[in-house]
Design goal:
The protein is mostly helical and 161 residues long. The chain contains 5 helices and 4 strands; from the N terminus they run E-E-H-H-E-E-H-H-H. The protein has a two-stranded antiparallel sheet. A two-stranded antiparallel sheet has the order 3-4. The termini are close together.
Length: 161
């Protein structure tokens, strides 16, 4: 069903992007929030030298205590938490300032693309080098990849409007 131009909002000199948020925005917010919680948990495990509750599903300890779990002394999980937080803030900015929708959508695309590529590398490290899988790390990799796919769909939707 085509929305008439009268029901569309003129943003940045172009008609097309509708005011407000859509279902893809909501699933992005939820995925980013879950990713943030997951990364905060993994950061806490790393910094507290605690044992992750993997319930016998994987080997969180080997992954979280490996040399690959830090970059320049900063836990990878903390970097992930920062990325999820930035994505979440960007999405909230989009809801508050719909005229910035295009910039925000491209920004979320960029952050999620970098996160997906880095998660692919870390997954390779888990499987090929460490021979250990951390389910919480896999969850994060799936969430950031999901955010990337949704960001592509949201960019496409922007062009279709």
């Amino acid at each position: 069903m085509k929305v008439s131009n009268a029901k569309q909002l003129q943003i940045g000199g172009r008609v097309g992007m509708k005011k407000g948020v859509d279902s893809k925005w909501w699933v992005s917010v939820i995925a980013a929030f879950i990713g943030l919680l997951d990364s905060i948990y993994l950061t806490w495990i790393k910094l507290a030298n605690a044992t992750a509750s993997c319930s016998g599903i994987g080997d969180c300890e080997s992954v979280n205590n490996s040399s690959y779990s830090e970059v320049a002394g900063i836990p990878v999980a903390l970097i992930g938490a920062g990325a999820y937080l930035v994505i979440l803030v960007l999405l909230l900015v989009e809801a508050r300032f719909p005229e910035r929708s295009e910039l925000v959508r491209y920004s979320v695309f960029g952050f999620s693309l970098i996160g997906t590529l880095y998660s692919a590398y870390l997954t390779y490290v888990e499987v090929a080098i460490l021979n250990a899988i951390c389910p919480f790390c896999v969850l994060s990799a799936l969430l950031i990849t999901f955010l990337f796919v949704v960001s592509v769909l949201r960019l496409r939707d922007m062009d279709l409007d």
